[in-house]
Amino acid sequence: MASMNEFGNNLYSGKTSFPFVGRRRLWFIIAIALVVASALVPLLRPVQFSIEFTGGSQFMVLAPDSVQQSTATDAVHSVVPGATTKVVIVSDTNVRVQTDQMSAEDTQLVATALADAYKVDPAEVTSSFIGPAWGENVTRQSLWGLAIFLALTFLILAVYFRTWKMSAAAILGLLDVLIITVGVYALAGFEISPAAVIGFLTILAYSLYDTTVVFDKIRENTTEDGENSARTFGESVNLAVNQTLIRSINTSIVAALPVGAILFIGAFWLGAETLTDISLSIFVGILVATYSTLFVAAPLYSLFREKRAADRRARQARARVARSRADRRVELFAGGGFLCRHA
Questions:
Q1: Which of 2, 49, 254, 339 has its Cα between 20 and 30 A from that of 322?
Q2: Are 215 and 171 in contact (CB under 8 A)?
Q3: What domains sit in the chain, N to C, each tagged with a CATH number?
Q4: Nearest in space to 109 (alpha carbons), one of 57, 63, 56
Q5: What is the pLDDT of residue 248?
Q6: Do the Cβ atoms of 88 and 96 come closer than 8 Å?
Q7: Cα separations (Å) of 17 from 12, 25, 240?
Q8: Beta strands in the chain (DSSP E)
Q9: 105 φ, ψ (degrees, to nearest 5)
Q10: Distance, CA of 264 to CA of 273 (rounded, Å)
Q11: pLDDT above 90 as % of the chain
């Protein structure tokens, strides 16, 4: 514990420092590679959308004798050969079956086939369908929700930090988190459902919280340094990131542990597959959000501001030189130097 406290104190004082800003070119190359790879994943493994987005038919079998997925698939194919079928074991006593949208006649036949296959009363099999128009509306509302979230985030951060450059760096960090998380989600073969969309918005909010804390420390450092600081703007930003590093790591671990328990114990071990949508997106998003804040958002802001800070320091240096020359002329004039030079 003492060594960890000493490590944290060294980070805060600047005695120990990781080059988040100094090696930003490397971090940017890695970030771009991850974003490009995540964007290419859907080309190799297309993103799967749930029935809420695409439309289709859904059947729920209550209290079956067994919960074998193959039983449902065989029953559906016995009525509609080749139909796309997704079977989810909701619990030990419930099975959810999703298929392409079917006619009323096929829906009734499939419900009967499922009842026979699982040896339950036909009344224990419920059916419903979601039309493509409703799915399109859900998709449109999700995209609008994301766009509004990003727009409000940009405006609020610009007002809070009184600079659009911090806001722009934060938004680029959020987009980095979103693209990589969706890429991992698609690579894992999970469907994007409304629960997953909620998870994406949740991790964007978490990333925003983490970025705001780090940026607040950056603003504090760069404001306190003043004009005569021995540190450059980039060094002040790097110090702020190191000072908040332990807090970022601790917060991420504390947030990831319960979500990881839900994902690996609840979903994968106990078989509660309805939890995988939101838990996977949040778990991956927390890890990516921490990385993005430290290696993308903060170095980006430093890059946006360094030229302005360098220009300001150059103007201040020229002003100091001009004042020094003016003071020297006054001294020469007062001491007779002016007359001597023109004698």
A1: 339
A2: no
A3: 2-48+134-318 (1.20.1640.10), 56-130 (3.30.70.600)
A4: 57
A5: 87
A6: yes
A7: 9, 17, 10
A8: 48-49, 56-62, 85-91, 94-99, 125-130, 191-192
A9: -65, -45
A10: 11
A11: 12
